[in-house]
TrEMBL record:
Record's protein name: L-rhamnose mutarotase
Enzyme class per UniProt: isomerase
GO cellular component terms given for this protein: cytoplasm
Keyword ATP-binding: no
UniProt keyword annotations, A-Z: Carbohydrate metabolism, Cytoplasm, Isomerase, Rhamnose metabolism
Length: 104
């Protein structure tokens, strides 16, 4: 298992809509995530900076990266693109966070 953390930025005036669109997440997207070995996926919000911190436990980086090539993921990116900073392909601008500490 790999612990993966990353940050993204949601627009301040879109936080409520961002939250609404994740509750619940599309069942088809949830299935793709699970089928690609994603477990314990969380997103946290820093209300002062509007940065989102994502955390997921994944089976492998290869499977994680394959998610981006699925149709449902691309549709999700389009659906969320107006709410956050994105790349040209509508994927979220994301910065991986370096793992420094873990306590079980």
């Amino acid at each position: 298992m790999v612990r993966k953390a990353f940050k993204m930025k949601v627009y301040e005036d879109k936080i409520e809509e961002y939250t609404k669109r994740h509750n619940p997440i599309w069942p088809e997207l949830k299935e793709v995530l699970k089928n690609h070995g994603v477990r314990n996926y969380n997103i946290f919000l820093d209300t002062e900076s509007c940065f989102l911190s994502g955390y997921a436990e994944i089976e492998s980086e290869v499977k994680w990266n394959e998610i981006a090539n699925t149709e449902i993921c691309k549709k999700w990116w389009q659906y969320m693109a107006t709410l956050m900073e994105t790349n040209e392909d509508s994927s979220p601008v994301s910065t991986e966070l370096k793992h420094l500490f873990y306590m079980e």
